[in-house]
Amino acid sequence: DAGITQSPRYKITETGRQVTLMCHQTWSHSYMFWYRQDLGHGLRLIYYSAAADITDKGEVPDGYVVSRSKTENFPLTLESATRSQTSVYFCASSIGGGGQETQYFGPGTRLLVL
Amino acid sequence: RKEVEQDPGPFNVPEGATVAFNCTYSNSASQSFFWYRQDCRKEPKLLMSVYSSGNEDGRFTAQLNRASQYISLLIRDSKLSDSATYLCVVNYGQNFVFGPGTRLSVLP
Predict the structure, then answer these.
(1) Mean pLDDT value across chain B
(2) Which residues on A lie below 8 Å from B97 (Cβ)?
(3) Contact assessment for residue A88 and residue A76, using Cβ atoms and an 8 Å cutoff
(4) What is the pLDDT of residues A53-101, one digit of tens each?
(5) Which residue in the set B45, B49, B96 is minimally distant from A45, CB to CB?
(6) Separation of alpha carbons A59 and A108, rounded Å
(7) Are the beta carbons of A112 and A17 closer than 8 angstroms?
C-alpha cells in the first residue's frame, strides 16, 4: 500500500523556470491538498481539490497552477519560479473535505529556487 | 492577528515530565480541531482530534474551550520519542488552518 507519494523529493531550479511537483495517492480519496511550509508560517494551503476536475484556491495560490484530471493525481506547477517559492511542499489527501476528516500527508518536496 | 497561534516554544523537558501546549484560534466559525505531530524533516501526522467534551488517548489529553477559542494538549510521562513539533489545526468548511507549531524536546 503506497499511500501518498510525492516526486521529486528534492528539486533545485532557477528563477523563471517552470517546475511541476507530482502527487499520487492510492486510496481513491476524494480530497487532495497542496501546502507549503516555511519557517514562521506553518503550513499554508495553496490549492485543494474536492474531486477530479474540481479545484479551488487556498490561502496562497498566486504563482501556482493545479490540475486534477484523475482522482489519484494532483500535480502542482510553478509557472515561473521565484526565490520566494523556495519552500517545502506537502501534498495531502482525505476521504472527505471537512468535519473530522484526517488529512494524510506525503513525504514532501524540498524546492530551492536560485 | 494570525488565525491560529501557538506557544512559541521550544519546550525542553526531562523524561517523565508533564508538558502542556496551548493554541488559540480567531475564527469563531471553526468546526473541527486537531493536533498533528511533525518529526524533523518529516510530514505531519495526525496525533488526535479534539472534541468539545475533551478527549484522552493514553498519555495525551486534548481539551477545547469554544467560548475562549482555546485548545490545549497535555502530555504526561514524556518519552524521548515524544520529541517533535506539535501543530494545532483548525478546520472550518473545507479550509484547514495550521498553527506554526510548538517544538518539544524531551531530554534524557
Answers:
(1) 92
(2) 45
(3) no
(4) 999 999 999 999 999 999 999 999 999 999 999 999 999 999 877 666 8
(5) B96
(6) 19
(7) no
d(CA A75, CA B78): 39
Q: Looking at beta carbons, which residues of chain A come within 8 Å of B87?
A: 42-43
Distance between CA atoms of residues B3 and B41, nearest Å = 24
Interface test with B, best of A25, A33, A37, A44 (most B CBs within 10 A): A37
- What is the CA A91 to chain-centroid distance, rounded? 4
Give pLDDT, residue A1: 57
The mean pLDDT value for B47-70 works out to: 92
Whether residue A31 contacts residue A95, with contact meaning beta carbons closer than 8 Å, is answered with yes
Closest Cα in chain B to A5? B43
* Distance (Å, whole) CA A57 – CA A53: 13
| Cα A26 from Cα A15, distance rounded (Å) | 33
Ramachandran category for residue A32: left, alpha or beta (phi over 0 → left; psi -120 to 50 → alpha): beta
Q: Which amino acid is at B93?
A: G
Which chain B residues have any C-beta within 8 angstroms of a chain A C-beta? 4, 31-32, 34, 42-46, 49, 87, 91-101
Place of cell 488552518: B97
3-state helix, strand, coil in chain A (%, to 5): 5, 50, 45
